[in-house]
Amino acid sequence: MNITVVGLGLIGGSLALSLKESGFAKKIIGVDNKENHTSEALELNLVDECQDLETAIANSDLILIAIPVNAIVEILPKIMSLIDLQIVMDFGSTKEAICETISNHPKREQFVAAHPMAGTENTGPSAALSGLYSGKVNIICEKDKSSERALKTALKLFQELSMNVIYMDPVEHDKHIAYVSHLSHISSFMLGMTVLDIEKDEKNIFNMAGSGFQSTVRLAMSSPEMWAPIFNQNSKNVKSALTEYIRYLQIFKEALEEHNSEKMLELMKEANDIRRVLKK
Amino acid sequence: MNITVVGLGLIGGSLALSLKESGFAKKIIGVDNKENHTSEALELNLVDECQDLETAIANSDLILIAIPVNAIVEILPKIMSLIDLQIVMDFGSTKEAICETISNHPKREQFVAAHPMAGTENTGPSAALSGLYSGKVNIICEKDKSSERALKTALKLFQELSMNVIYMDPVEHDKHIAYVSHLSHISSFMLGMTVLDIEKDEKNIFNMAGSGFQSTVRLAMSSPEMWAPIFNQNSKNVKSALTEYIRYLQIFKEALEEHNSEKMLELMKEANDIRRVLKK
C-alpha cells in the first residue's frame, strides 16, 4: 500500500525506513513543513517522494502522523476531513487530548490512536533507525472506536514492525506514562542542568563522568520542541509524578543531613525492587 | 607479582579477572569476610586462593582494597601497619576521608589512592567482568604523597587495565564526584521509589516502560550497602548537589503548573548542552 508519513523526524523516519524495508509499504510519501527535513529524508532514502499534505493524502491508503503532540491535535481533525477511505494513525506520546479532539468526528472509526514505546535521544531525519521498533511495546487506545478494517491494518503494521501491542484507555495511558516516561525525561533534563551549572566553575568535571552518569543523563539530549507540548498536554499527571519524585528526594536529603544510614539503606533497598521489573 | 584483592565483589572481582588475564598478576589471593563471596570467587576462578588478611598480605607484593568506603577507612591503617615493602591501593568512590585516615602514617608513601570510574548496577563475585575497566577513566589522588615506586606500580596496573589516568586533589575529587556520580545514583534510586509507589495501585504500569525509563532508573539497582557509606562520607557535597537538583526540579514544576512553554523550552534547551559533554 501507499503510505504517507507526516513528520520525518526520529519516529516518522524510522517508521518509513522499517515499513519500506519490510515491503509493507509499496511507496512512502513524506510530508514535513520543514524544508530541510524533506530534502534530508529524500537524500537518506527514507521516503520515495515528498508532497504537500492534501496531495499526499489523496495518493495514500494509510496516513501516519509523527509530529509533536500539540501539532497532532491541530492537524488531525483537518486530515480526518480530507480523507476518503484512508486509514489514519497517530504516534503521539499523549493520548487523551488527541482522542478527544476527534471523538465526534464522522470518520472517527478510520482512526487508530497509537503510542510506540520506542525512541532515542536524537532528532531529525538523520536519527531514523530501521530497527527502532523491533521487540518494543506499542499501546493502542480506544480500540473499540476504530473500525475492524482500521484496527486490522494497524495490527498488521505493528506486526511488520515486530511490536507487542497492548490496549489501554487514553486517560489511563496518560496517567501511567507520566510516571514511566515523562518523569524520567524531566529527571534527566534537570540532572543535566544541575551538572552543567556546576561545570561553569569546575571546568574539568566531565572528565570524571562514567557510564552511570551517562545513563541517567542521556534523555537530557532529547528534543525540547517535542517534549514541551507533551508536558503541557499531560501537565496534571506529570505534576503529580514530579511532586512525588521531589518528595522522595527530600526524604532522602533529610536522611543524608541526619547521617541516618538506616533510613538511606531502607530507601535504597526498596528502590532495588525495580530489578524485579527491569530484569523480567 | 602476587596480588591480594580485599573485597571480591564487582570492583575487586573485575580487578582480579583482568589482572590475571593480562598476566600482570602471577597469583591472585582473595580476602573477603563473607564466606559465600570467597567460595563463589574460587568457583568462578576469580582468584587462585583465599586467605585471611594477615597471611594474604605476607604473601603479596601488592594489596588492592575494593570494599565499601566506611570499611576502607577502618581497615586501611591496619593494613598499612601490617605491610613490609608491599604497595597498597584503594578503589573507593570517596577520597578525602580515606586519604585523611593515613595522612600521617609512617608508610603513607607505599599507598596510592585511586577511583576507577567504572561499575555496573550488579553486585557480588558473579558481577565481575574482565573488560569492566577498559577505556575508562581512573582518578589518582595525592600522587605526590606516594613514592615513585608505588606510583609506577599503580600506573603500570592502570595501563594493564587500559585505563586513562587523571590526577586530582581528594577534596576536589569528592566535590566533583558528588555531581557526576553520587547525585545520579540518588536521582535514580528515588525515581525507582516514585514509580514503584504508583505501581501499588497500577499493576500493569511496567508493561509500558521503554528504554528511556530503563536508562534513567538502571542505577536504582545498585548496592545500598556500598552506597550508604559513600553518601555519608561525602554528605556535605552530596547535599549541595541534591539541593541544586531539587531546586531545578521545582523551577521546572513551576513552569509546568503555569503552562509556561517558553520557560520549559528554555530549561530543556540549556540541558541539551549536555550533548557537548557526552558526545565528545
Summary of the model, kept short:
Chain A is 52% helix and 13% strand.
Coarse shape of chain A: globular
Q: Provide the number of structural domains of chain A.
A: 2
Determine the strand fraction of chain A and express it as a percent band. 5-15%
Total count of helical runs of at least 4 residues of chain A = 12
> How are the strands of the biggest sheet of chain A laid out side by side?
3-2-1-4-5-6-7-8
CATH superfamily of the largest domain in chain A: NAD(P)-binding Rossmann-like Domain
Which structural class matches the secondary elements of chain A? Answer: alpha/beta
Radius of gyration of chain A from CA coordinates: 21 Å
> Major beta sheet of chain A, specifics?
8 strands, mixed
Helices and strands of chain A, in order, run as EHEHEHEHEHEEHEHHHHHH
Largest interface: A-B, 88 and 88 residues
The helix content of chain A is 40-55%
Q: Please tally the β strands of chain A and state the result.
A: 8
| CATH architecture field of the largest domain in chain A | 3-Layer(aba) Sandwich
